[in-house]
Design a protein that fits this description.
By secondary structure, the chain is an alpha+beta fold. The protein has helices at 2-7, 10-54, 62-71, 99-102; strands at 90-93, 105-107, 110-119, 123-124, 135-136, 140-146. This is Pilus assembly protein.
Length: 148
């Protein structure tokens, strides 16, 4: 009987001690999941913008491709696909803007022109900065062959 009185409340104290790291770990996993989701969204938008640009003529469609990369549509309307993403984060390279690297590239089956869309300097802002810090993504870039 005396032993039971000494043990009273121990489970509550143990739960309190264990809950702190478990909650921090849950918030950390959630934030890194959000970061991966944002990165995947940006990668898909860059791929779509490059695919659109590859179907356009040389020097055409770069503004529309930027809108596709940022807003997911051709008119730049609505909210950005990721918070804080702006048109200044998107770089478009083709045979007009970078002729040395994107024009007349030799391949095993002839010469091709390339188009590249890049999102650079995007910063993921954490909702719980004391658990997961803000992350600046590396360049997200896609290069495709331009159809002529």
């Amino acid at each position: 009987m005396r032993c039971r009185r000494k043990q009273r409340g121990v489970a509550a104290v143990e739960l309190a001690l264990v809950m702190i790291p478990l909650i921090l770990m849950a918030f950390g996993i959630t934030e890194f999941g959000r970061a991966i989701y944002h990165y995947n969204t940006l990668a898909k938008s860059v791929r779509d913008a490059t695919r659109y640009l590859s179907q356009q003529g040389p020097g055409e469609g770069s503004g529309t491709a930027r809108c596709l990369a940022v807003h997911g549509n051709r008119t730049c309307s609505g909210t950005p696909l990721a918070p804080g993403l702006t048109l200044s984060n998107v770089q478009v390279h083709d045979q007009i803007t970078d002729p040395g690297t994107h024009q007349n590239q030799p391949t095993g089956s002839g010469v091709i022109n390339l188009v590249t869309v890049t999102i650079d300097g995007y910063q993921f802002v954490s909702l719980v900065p004391f658990v997961a810090t803000n992350i600046t993504f590396g360049d997200i870039s896609v290069t495709m062959r331009q159809v002529m």
